[in-house]
Structures
1.
Amino acid sequence: MNKIIYLDNASTTKVDEEVMKTYERVSLSYFGNASSIHRLGIEANDLLEKARAQILSLLKLERSHEVIFTSGATEANNLALKGYMHQYKNRGNHLIVSSIEHPSLIEAAKSLEKEGFEVTYLPVDNHGVININVLKQSIKKETILVSIMSVNNETGSIQPIEEIASLLKEYSKIMFHTDAVQAIGKIEKSYDDIDMVTLTSHKIHGLKGVGALIKRKNITFDPILSGGGQENGLRSGTNDVANIVSFSKALRLSLAKLPSTIKHVKELYNRLMDYFKSNPEMYILNSFSDNPFILNVSLKEKKAAVVVEGLSKKGIMISSISACHSKSEAYSYVVYEMSKDEKRSRNTLRISLDYHNTMEEIEEFIHELDSLVRGLRQ
Ligand code: PLP
C-alpha cells in the first residue's frame, strides 16, 4: 500500500498493535460464552469482569458507577436517552440536549419527541459552547434528563461539563449524561459528578463494535434489547469478551500516554494554525488551544469535498463534515449552529490529529493542501 497520511482520527483510529494482540489472544484462548457455567465460560467471565473493573478504576469511578457494555457509542447514547426516559417517564417527560450533539444522540432525542416526550435543543455560541444560564432557564418541573457532549466531534469545542454537573446537583430529579467519545484519551476531565457517560473503543485505538454506557449504580433503564439478560438485564446479547478486554487495554494505554500525546499534538496543531491563519482562502472555525486534536476550517470559495478527494488521491485522509454522515448530508448542522452561515457550513474541512502523526506529515499535508487550493483558484 502507498504511504498514507491519516489525519481523520476523530472518525476512527488505527488499532494499536498491543490491543490487537490482546484481541487475538482472548479470541483464541478464551472463546467460551461468558454466561456459560463450565470452565471456559467461567474463565471468559473472569476476564470480562476484570475489564469492567479496570475501566471503572481508570476513570476513578469504581465506587459510584458501573459499566454496561454495548456495541459502541451509538447504542450507548440511545440507551442513555431512550432507556432512561422510558424507565422514568412517571417522573417527568422533558429532556434537554445541545443542538450540536452527535447524530446518534440528536436522532434518539427526535425519536423520543415523536413518542410524545418534550425535548429542548440548547443553542451554542460561535465557539460551540452552551450557555449555562440558558440551560438553567430551560429546566422545568418535568425535566428529568440533560445530555450534553463533552467534546464535539466536528469542531472540537469543549463543553463546561463540570459546571453543568454542579448546576444539576441542585435538582435531585435531573440526571446528567455526557457523550465523552471525543474527550476520553484526549482531554483530562473527571466524570465522578456525572451520572452517565458514553464511551467507544475505536476512537482510542481499540476495535470497532464495542463501547460502554457508564452509569451511577442506582440508575436503571428500560432495556432496548430483550434477550438473555446479560449486563444485569440492561443489554442482552452474548458479551464480546475479546473486544471488551481489548477496549480496557486501549483505554489504559491511551490514558497512560495522555500527557505526552497532548504535548506532541499541540506542536502539530500550532504549525497547522500558523498556516491557516496566514491563508486568506480559509476561515478557522475553531481555535481551541485546550483541544489541539480537532481543527475545523471552512473554505471561502471552494468545495470542501473536492479538496478532500484531491488530498485522498495524494494519500492524505481528512474529513469534510463528519465521516459518519458526510455522504447523506450536504451541510454541517454543527458548523451552522455555531456560525449561522450556510455557505461556511457547506464547506468545512476537519483535520483530526493523533500521537501517530508526525511534523513531516503535517508539512506534506500543508504543501498538498496549498497547491490544491491554489490550483482551484486559477
Ligand atoms: N458520539 C460521538 C461524539 C462520535 O464522534 C461518534 C462517532 O463518530 C459516536 C458518538 C458514535 O460512535 P460509534 O461509532 O461507536 O457508534
2.
Amino acid sequence: MNRQGILTVVSGFSGAGKGTLMKALLEKYDYGLSISATTRTPRTGEEDGREYFFLTREHFESMIEQGELIEWAEYVGNYYGTPKKYVEDQLAAGKDVILEIEVQGALHVRELFPDALLLFITPPSAEELKNRLVNRGTESMDKIEERLSRAFEEADCMQQYDYIVVNDELDACVEQLNEIIINEHSRTLRNNSYIEKMSNELKAFKKGDL
Ligand code: 5GP
C-alpha cells in the first residue's frame, strides 16, 4: 500500500518530559524528528545541530524573511521555529515526521497541514510538573516560574489536541505514542487512494454489465 507520511506534532508543558520521551521513541522506532532553530542559549550537554540549531536573532529573523520556517513562535523571550525543508522532504518520502513544539506553533501547523496529528504530553499533576522542573536544575527559579505561568496559559489549548498523553512511566508512554501514530495510519480519511484502488480492482469481479 502506498504509505503517506504523517506529520505528528507533540506539545506539552515545559518539564513534562517531552525531550526524554522523544529520545526514547526515536531509539526504538523509525521516525524523523525535526530539529528546530532557536535563539536560546544551549544547556549543558546540548549540541548545535542535535537538540537545536542555535542561532543569533539576526540569523533567525533572516530565516523568517526568507520563508525558510514552517512556523515560529516566541517562547519565554526566545525565538523557536521549524525549518521547512527537512519536514517537506521527509513527508514526500513517505516518512512519519515529529515536531516537538509549543502550542502556538502547533495550532499554526494545524492550519497549514489540516491532516497533522496533534498530541499533548502532560505529567500526572501540576505538583509533579513543578517538581520535574526544579529537579531538572537547568533553569533559575525565575525562569521556572515563567514556564509554570506559561503552562497555565497553555492548558487552555489542550482541548484542541487530538490526544492527551499522560507521561507517568516512560516506557509505557513511548509505546502509547507509537501506537497512536500507527493507528492513525488506518484512519479511513488517510486511505482514500487505497479505497479507490480496491474498488477499481473489485470491478473486475462484478457480475453482470460492466
Ligand atoms: P526548551 O527551551 O525547553 O527546549 O523549549 C521551550 C519550548 O519551545 C518547548 O515547549 C518546545 O516544545 C518549544 N519549541 C521547540 N522547538 C520549537 C519550534 O520549532 N517551534 C515552536 N513553536 N516551538 C518550539
3.
Amino acid sequence: MNPKKLPEDDIQAAVVLLRAGETVAFPTETVYGLGADARNPLAVQKIFWIKGRPADHPLIVHIADVSHLDMWAENISGAVWRLAESFWPGPLTLILPRRRDVPKDVSGGQDTIGLRIPDHPVAASLLRAFGGGIAAPSANRFGRVSPTTAQHVRDGLGSKVGMILEGGPCRVGVESTIVSLVNGNAVLLRPGGISLEEIEDTLGQKVFSGHSGSGNARVPGMLASHYAPATPLEIHPGSLLGHRALQLVWQGCKVAVVTLREDGECFESRRIITTCMPRSAAEYGRVLYSTLHRLDRAGFDRLLIEAPPVTPEWLAVNDRIQRAAHGTVKGTISGKKLSPSSGEVEPSVKEIFKFL
Ligand code: TXA
Ligand code: MG
C-alpha cells in the first residue's frame, strides 16, 4: 500500500477490486479479515484457495447495517433483533437460517449463515462504499494464528491478496463471539469479545454451550487444533513454569515463556526469555496474537504459556491458547529430579527460579 494515498482512495480502490471478484484484506476490531463479495461464488472460492481452507467450512458475511439482516437471513426472531441492536457494530457473529437466494458457497453448503457488523472505521467505510455483504474469515492460513495487524497479513498471505487495507492494531484482538440462533435455542459456538453473561442478560434466557472442542470439521474455529503458531506450545500453571523451562533449557532448547508476572519481574538470558502479559483478560486478549506472531518468528524451540485464571472473563483467551497448544506438544513434566543433559549449563539459569 502506498502510505501517501488518502484512506478514501484506498477504500475506493478496494471497492473496485471487490466488484471485480478480487480479495481485499481489511481491519476489524477483532482481527483482520480476508474479504470478498459474498454473493460472488468465484470470489468466495478465492478466499478458500488463499487460506488453504476446506470448501465446506462456512464464512462470516460482514454487513454495513442492521437493516441488511433480512437480505441474508430468514425467520428472524425478536431475540435476534435484540442481540443485533444491542451488540452491532461489535464483536458478535449470529448464525441464522440462510435466505434461499444467498449463494450457499459462502456458508460451506450449510442452510445457515453467519452475520456480523464489525466495529472498525475502515471496515465500516468499506462496507458502506461497497454496499453489499463481504464474506471474510480471519486473514491467515488455515489453522494458523489470526492477524491483528496489516503486517501479520502481509507476512502470512503476502501477494496472494488483491489489497491489504491498513487500520492499525486490532482493539479486541481475538475473534468475535459466535452465537447460533437457528432452532429457537441460543448456543454459544465460540467465546469472544462479547461475554456469555452479556448475551444472556440481553436475551433473558440461558445460552447453551456448543463450544466443546468436539472437532466438528465444518466449524474450523471449533477444531481442537486451531489458531496455532508453528513453534510447539505448552500451557502450565505458574508454579510449574520455571521447572519446565529449566528442563527444556537443559535439553538444549531455546525457550520463550509467556507469564502473567509484572513487567519488572521479566527475565531474559541467552536461551530463555519471558514476556510479561497484562493481567486483565481484555488487555491480554488484545496482545495475545501479536505476542504469538512475534515469538513464532523469533526462532524459539518451544513456547511456554502460564495458564491464565479459569474465570468467565478469561473464557475466550483460555479457548484460544488451548487450541493453539493442541496437537503441538503435550505438556509433560516428569517428577524426576532434573540434571543437565550435557556439561553445559545456562550461565544464569539459577536465576530463572527467582523470576518464574
Ligand atoms: O472476529 C471474527 O469473527 C473474524 C473477523 C474477520 O470478522 N472472522 C473470523 O472468521 O474469525 P473465521 O472464518 O476465521 O471464523 C469464523 C467461524 C468459523 O469457525 C466458522 O466455521 C464459523 O465462524 N461459522 C461461520 N458461518 C457459520 C455457520 N453458518 N454455521 C456455523 N459456524 C459458522
Ligand atoms: Mg479464523
4.
Amino acid sequence: MDDIDVRMEVAVRTAREAGAILLRFFRDLNGYERKGRVNLVSEADKSAEAFLIRELRHYFPADGVIAEETEQPDWGQSGFVWVIDPLDGTTNFVHCHPHFCVSISLIKDGVPIIGVVYAPIYDELFCGVRGRGAYCNEVPISVSQTTSLYTALIASGFPYNREVDVLAPLLERVQRVLQASHGFRRAGSAALDMCYVAAGRLDAYWEEDVRAWDVAAGVVFVEEAGGRCTDLNGRPCDIFKGKVIASNSHIHDELLALLFDSQ
Ligand code: IPD
Ligand code: CA
Ligand code: CA
C-alpha cells in the first residue's frame, strides 16, 4: 500500500466512527454554544473532532491537522495536512434535521487529494482520490449531463454574517437563479452539496463565504466525477479563499455569468 492508500483506509474508518459518535448525540443533545449569533457548536462537534484528531495523529504523527473547532492550524512536517469538519450541518443537527455529515480531506501543497464524507443518517460514504475517481458506497459517481441552466437544480448556502449589505446582493443572486433554473436548494451542509454535485443529484452549487473544511473533500469528488470547481471569477478553486462554484462543468460558465457578470 502506498502513502495515499494507507491514509484513505484510515480516513474512511475514522469518518464512519466519527459518524457513529454524532449519531449517539443526535436528538439527544444537552444544548449547544454559540460561536456567533447563529454559528453554533455542540458537544457532538467537539467529541467527533477530538476523536478524529486523536486517530489521525496516532497513525500519521508528522501530518498537519486543520480542524474547525481547533483554533491553531498545525501544518505538520510531512507535507500532508488533514482538513477536518467533524460535523458539517451543525444547525441542522441542533434542530434534529438529519442532513449532516463528517468531512475529512487530505491536502498536499494546498490541493485536496483525498476526500471522505460520511452522512450517518443516510449511511452514505463518499470517497475519492485525485486521479482515481470518486465513489458513493463504493459505486463510481459522475456529474449530471444537464447542459443548460434552464433545466438545472442549483444549491447554495448562506453565510453566518447576516448583515443586510451581505444578504441583500446574495438574495438577489438567488432570485436570478430561481428565475433561470428548475429550482434552488439550501440544504445546510456545504460538504454534502458538493457530494451531490459529484453524484449528479445537483447540477451546481456555489457559496461565497466557506472555510477549507467545508469544501476540500468536495473538490476531489466533483473534479473526479467529471465536474469543475473554480472561484467566482472562473479561476482555479483555492479552498482557503472562501469562495467556490462547483458544477457538472456543462453549465459552469452560464451560471458564473448569471451570478457575477450581470452586476
Ligand atoms: C456550514 C454548512 C452550511 C454552509 C456554511 C457552513 P457548519 O458548516 O456547511 O451549509 O452554508 O457556510 O459554515 O457550520 O455546519 O459546519
Ligand atoms: Ca462546515
Ligand atoms: Ca462544522
